[in-house]
Design brief:
- The complex is a heterodimer of chains A (about 850) and B (about 325).
- In chain A, the strands form two sheets. A three-stranded antiparallel beta sheet of chain A has the order 3-5-4. A two-stranded parallel ribbon of chain A has the order 1-2.
- The N and C termini of chain A lie far apart (about 95 Å).
- Chain A has 42 helices and five strands.
- Chain A has about 850 residues and is mostly helical.
- Chain B is α/β, with parallel strands linked by helices.
- An eight-stranded mixed beta sheet of chain B has the order 7-6-5-4-2-3-1-8.
- In chain B, helix 3 (about 110-120) links the parallel strand 4 (about 95-100) and strand 5 (about 125-130).
- Chain B is elongated.
- The model of chain B is unreliable at about 1-5 (pLDDT under 50).
- Classes of the chains: A mainly alpha (about 850), B alpha/beta (about 325).
């Protein structure tokens, strides 16, 4: 017990009350001292009712028992039933308290017993029963049944009550005149709820009194009740005194108020605290609760480093314990810091305190899932800033996680040592920030407000980076960590400035200082990590971010080569999930990059894995699948924690559109060329699914959403109608939905149109070459608005790949077809023959079964006749 | 029914009935539902023929309509129609139904069932199948079918297991029997026709000389392929059944032999043998799959192939004719 523990009231109550009661009483006394924050309320403390759980329950029960009795008198059975149900309900609630006592309170048992007698009496009285109305008779019936069931649990108690005539006789007269609720007899079980002496002071004294007498066995004799009562009166006086004293003491320096003021004005607080630390402050402090701030240091204590450290440890000792007021703890540490500063105890100690402060701030939220409140977050960032500045200003401070607590050094100004790692704290802060973004609604302005802090984080980040770089002692691993953080805050941001500068170098924009190209920044940081990192994880993350950044800025070859060199594809399924998410994001971005640069196949390949299972949302950690029910709540929670903040999301519709368009450009020519091939494989399942869905529709309207547009375009392409295809893909709707999302959309659209032309030409040749004997190249070029050389090259390629059975006739610039393709009927016949072969095979299988069965039968028969000997 | 079946060996269709059937089938060409109707007529046991003298269409089931309500309405409608016909002195005996079908695609279990129902009432009932496509090509295609005695009996027992098929020697070819049809008009109508023919002589239509074969062939082959697929599915089911059956039998045999061994040992030791157990409950044999679908599919395939055969023969003849024409 600390010295701040005021012993006075404690001893007083101890003297008058037994041990058992003390436990009950303490909260009733201690609570008001801490909870009250309003001065006014404090003044008329007497009026407030603070009850222990037990007293409260008992009061409730008592009032209902009384109600029950009154209702019995007027024979209102339906009301009696309602009251009885209420009683049972409250009793159920009070069970905990009652269990502690060991048996049901007597007044309760008695009430039940009386009710039973009453109901049985009514039940016997047939004449009366016939006269009452329907509701009441029904109620009587149900009540009787319920009561029978209910009283089974109390049989012993009820018997006991009935066997104790003394109590009965006493209470009998009271029953007759309920208007006078508290005559002498009633006090046996109810005296506490009706105090006679001080009705105006129906305060704690009564309550504590009642609970005390409850503990006693007051059924021993009726005479004892009298003395009991007297004793109670005495105690009333005692306890009242305690309270009077306490309230008068507490008034001038109400702790709640003090606290409020302190947190606002540190100067005032200082003074107040000095006052408050007067030795005669006699409030009671619960164990586990913090020492009051008023009592941080006794007035005359010499404030030294050692004392402060001790104090700090004291404050921190309650950390994580139940009932710790975390807000208060933060305030206390802040206050301690003020003292340290005032007494000039050295920056190192301050750093130490700041470290504690920030960890207290992190502790503020108990739940992992919930995020910090804005003001706490504000506190967090500002403290972070302060630590950083402090450490920077005092290069002699050595802060590290590796310094054990006992070797900390706060006094030797040349060789300050303190435990704590600013980098870890920053990482934790960054995580907190992500959490804040995750929990706030991405479509509200609140999110934008939160997002504004990103700039601040980056500022701190750069600051920290400079700080760590300036320290020669920083291990390279720590540098890697801070660099990774820097990269992670940079890689997904599109560098508009440098792209604009690149696209027209003549434009002399004023180059903003500090806003240098992110490309170089990321390159440098990543290279450092590649060479110095010793854990694979940081390297892998940095690499993926690097690729992402390249891909985002259309540096396709760099991105692709880096990706391929990493061999990440082979090992990624064994990596941890956040890394896998980053990998998925990177692949998607790589696919986008490939598409923008016209590498359709690569784009399709890169996007296929993410898009194929229709789980892109989950794979990119941009949301949860609703229908997935087999997940446990735990899994769901962890998954929620992994979600990307909204501003880092990749547009899923864009993803799907690019994937489908890529699939279309690959799949349609293939589809047309292999129309009758039974062993045709599917290149893109998703694309086929979309096509099938649209085929199934009875009535096909004009396309509405992105998918329908792509499907319509695919259908146009199937017949080689490139103009319609382009029209379906590139129009106002699609621009709005998809293409405007891409940087340099015009270039992409041009690329897309030329790709569509080429693939349409190929499709056309596949579909309609059987119709032609020969086609002239210029006609084809005209049809598809392509260069003749381009057409020439495409046709030549098709001939070379044996996709087209034809030859080029140079002088007339014609494609001459060689008819070797089977006609439709022929290919159908081939398919049919394959089917029939299949049927034959199956038939043979059946026949085999039959013969097998036959042979088995013979086998069994032979076995019966000594088949084994024959085998030997 | 024990009465000897099929005392009739041909069908006589009245001109009125024929025209009505054609008219209905051509008009009611809507998507999925095949137009159907009820035929009225009489059994002429003297000439061993079934005479179809009139008919009326059955309104198709509306998509939103309740099945049960529809059936009630239909029954009332049929009764009303028959009563009305009787009032004007038309035969009111239901002798079967007609339906249209492309390429002879009509052999389904529903078809089988309704035919069975009609035949349950009037044994001589038949079904007339009309092919609008062929008719439009210039060949009137109307064919009369009836369940054979065996298939009728089998429908009665609803037993389509392999065993019963084997015992009754039922094959897909004996599922239906086809009856020859002849058309008949009253003398008055014949006279009118003669007059009409004189007034506006028939256009010499050359539809039947069409030598474009590929579309018909393609369609036939596709239908054959579909039927083949159905067949494969059925066969797979059968194989699964056999496999399961064999496994169960094997397990049972093992169990029995183990039991016998055990009993033998017990006998030696002088203990009472183990009580008999219900083996069939312990080793439940899998339910035998119905062979009805296989039967129907086979029958359908046969029909397709026969059609294809006919068509190919005709086309070949035409092609030869044209070849010889060109050589001249």
């Amino acid at each position: 017990m600390s010295k701040f523990f005021a012993g006075d009231s404690e001893s007083e109550s101890e003297s008058s009350v037994s041990d058992e009661e003390e436990q009950e009483q303490k909260p009733t006394i201690a609570k008001p001292a801490f909870m009250v924050s309003d001065e006014e309320e404090d003044e008329d403390e007497g009026k407030r009712e603070v009850k222990s759980a037990k007293v409260k329950r008992h009061d409730e029960l008592k009032s209902i028992v009384k109600q029950l009795k009154n209702q019995q008198k007027i024979h209102d059975i339906s009301k009696v039933l309602a009251s009885f149900e209420e009683l049972a309900r409250i009793y159920e609630k009070a069970k905990k308290v009652i269990e502690r006592e060991g048996h049901a309170p007597m007044f309760y048992v008695r009430g039940i017993a009386e009710l039973m007698d009453y109901i049985e009496g009514r039940w016997e009285d047939r004449e009366w029963r016939s006269t009452m109305n329907k509701i009441n008779s029904k109620s009587l019936h149900t009540l009787r049944q319920k009561l029978r069931k209910y009283t089974r649990d109390f049989e012993d108690d009820i018997r006991y009550v009935k066997e104790n005539p003394t109590a009965d006789t006493d209470s009998e007269p009271e029953m007759d005149e309920p208007e006078a609720p508290a005559p002498s007899g009633a006090e046996i079980f109810r005296k506490d709820s009706f105090p006679r002496e001080e009705p105006e002071q129906k305060s704690e004294s009564d309550e504590s009194d009642s609970e005390k007498s409850e503990g006693d066995d007051f059924w021993s004799s009726s005479g004892s009740s009298e003395s009991d009562d007297d004793e109670g009166k005495d105690q009333d006086g005692d306890i009242k005194q305690i309270f009077m004293k306490k309230s008068t003491d507490a008034q001038p320096k109400e702790p709640g108020v003090v606290k409020e003021k302190i947190s606002k004005k540190p100067r005032d607080k200082q003074k107040l605290k000095k006052d408050a630390s007067a030795p005669d402050g006699d409030w009671v402090v619960k164990p586990g609760q913090l020492p009051e701030k008023g009592a941080l240091f006794p007035k005359d204590t010499e404030i030294t480093v050692a004392a402060c450290v001790k104090k700090l440890n004291e404050i921190l000792a309650v950390r994580g314990k139940k009932g710790t007021n975390r807000r208060e703890q933060i305030a206390l540490i802040g206050e301690l810091r003020e003292i340290v500063r005032k007494h000039k105890l050295g920056p190192c100690l301050e750093a130490k305190i700041l470290f504690s402060l920030i960890s207290a701030v992190f502790d503020y939220n108990q739940k992992v899932s919930s995020s910090m409140m804005p003001e706490i977050w504000e506190k967090c960032t500002s403290t972070m800033d302060e630590i950083l500045t402090l450490l920077e200003e005092n290069p002699s401070i050595l802060a590290s996680e590796n310094i054990p607590e006992d070797s900390e050094n706060f006094e030797d100004s040349e060789n300050y040592r303190v435990r704590g790692c600013i980098l870890t704290i920053f990482e934790k802060m960054d995580d907190e920030y992500t959490k804040i973004l995750q929990t706030s609604d991405a479509h509200a302005t609140e999110y934008v407000d939160r997002l504004k802090d990103e700039g601040r984080i980056c500022q701190i980040l750069e600051h920290l980076q400079r700080f760590l770089e300036s320290r020669t002692a920083t291990p390279s691993q720590e540098l890697c960590r801070i660099y990774l953080k820097r990269i992670e805050h940079t890689y997904y941001k599109y560098d508009y400035a440098s792209v604009r500068r690149q696209s027209n170098p003549n434009l002399d924009e004023p180059v903003v200082a500090g806003a240098d190209e992110t490309r170089r920044l990321i390159d440098d940081l990543c290279k450092f990590i590649y060479t110095h990192d010793k854990t694979d994880r940081i390297r892998a993350r940095a690499l993926l971010c690097h690729v992402y950044h390249h891909a985002l800025h259309d540096r396709w070859f760099e991105a692709r080569d880096l990706m391929l060199m990493s061999h990440m594809q082979d090992t990624i399924q064994h990596a941890d999930i956040p890394l896998q998410i980053l990998y998925n994001r990177t692949m998607v971005q790589l696919g986008f990059c490939a598409f923008r640069n016209g590498y359709i196949k690569d784009a399709h390949q890169a996007l296929n894995d993410v898009q194929s299972a229709n789980k892109s949302k989950e794979l990119l950690a941009q949301g949860m699948q609703m229908r997935n029910m087999e997940k446990t709540a735990e899994q769901e929670k962890t998954e929620k924690q992994r979600l990307m903040p909204y501003h880092m999301h990749i547009n899923l519709e864009l993803l799907e559109c690019i994937y489908l368009v890529s699939a279309m450009l690959i799949e349609i020519p293939y589809l047309v060329s292999h129309e009758f091939d039974t062993r045709r494989r599917m290149i893109s399942k998703q694309f086929h699914y979309q096509m099938k869905m649209s085929d199934r529709q009875a009535l096909l309207g004009p396309p509405e959403n992105m998918r329908e547009h792509v499907v319509a375009a695919s259908k146009a392409m199937k017949t080689g109608d490139w103009k319609a295809c382009v029209k379906f893909l590139i129009n106002e709707k699609m621009n709005q939905k998809v293409w405007h999302l891409l940087p340099q959309a015009d270039r992409v659209r041009e690329m897309l149109i030329s790709k569509i032309k080429e693939e349409s030409l190929r499709t056309y040749m596949f579909a309609f070459s059987p119709v032609y004997d020969s086609v002239s190249l210029p006609t084809l070029a005209e049809m598809f608005a392509l260069d003749e050389t381009c057409v020439h090259s495409i046709i030549s390629k098709m001939i070379l790949n044996e996709e087209l059975m034809a030859s080029l006739d140079e002088p007339s610039s014609c494609v001459v077809m060689h008819r070797t393709e089977p006609s439709k009927l022929q290919s159908l016949a081939l398919q049919l023959s394959e089917k029939i072969i299949n049927i034959t095979e199956l038939n043979e299988k059946i026949a085999e079964f039959k013969t097998n069965r036959g042979s088995q039968n013979t086998y069994q028969r032979q076995q019966g006749q000594g088949y084994q000997s024959w085998v030997i | 029914m024990a009465a000897p079946l099929a005392p009739t060996d041909h069908v006589v269709v009245d001109g009125v009935a024929l025209l009505k059937i054609v008219n209905h089938c051509e008009q009611a060409q809507s998507g999925y539902e095949q137009p159907q109707g009820v035929m009225l007529g009489m059994v002429n046991s003297l000439e061993k023929s079934l005479e179809v003298t009139n008919c009326f269409p059955i309104p198709p089931l509306q998509p939103q309509e309740d099945q049960q309500k529809y059936e009630e309405k239909l029954y009332k409608y049929q009764m009303d129609m028959m009563r009305n016909y009787r009032h004007v002195n038309i035969d009111s005996l239901v002798v079967g139904f007609y339906q249209s079908a492309y390429f002879g695609t009509f052999v389904t279990s529903a078809f089988l069932e309704s035919l069975y129902e009609y035949q349950e009432n009037v044994q001589e009932s038949i079904v007339l199948v009309y092919d609008p496509l062929k008719t439009s090509q210039g060949f009137l295609s109307l064919r009369a079918f009836r369940l054979t005695t065996e298939s009728f009996a089998m429908m009665g027992t609803e037993d389509f297991s392999s065993e019963s098929l084997r015992d009754t020697k039922m094959t897909f070819e004996r599922l239906f029997e086809e009856l020859p049809i002849c058309f008949r008009n009253s003398s008055l109508v014949n006279g009118l026709l003669c007059e009409l023919e004189e007034r506006n002589p028939l256009r010499t239509d050359c539809h039947f000389l069409d030598i474009g074969t590929s579309s018909v062939l393609e369609k036939s082959v596709r239908l054959l392929m579909n039927a083949g697929e159905d067949f494969i599915k059925e066969t797979n089911g059968q194989i699964n059944y056999l496999r399961q059956y064999n496994r169960t039998i094997q397990m049972r045999n093992q169990y029995v032999s183990r039991r016998e061994e055990e009993n033998g040992k017990r006998k030696q030791r002088g203990e009472p043998p183990l009580p008999e157990e219900d083996l069939s409950r312990q080793f439940k044999l899998p339910p035998a799959p119905s062979r009805q679908t296989t039967l129907l599919t086979s029958s359908q395939v046969t029909r397709y192939s026969r059609q294809l055969n006919e068509f190919a023969a005709q086309s070949l003849a035409k092609l030869f004719a044209i070849q010889s024409l060109q050589q001249k």
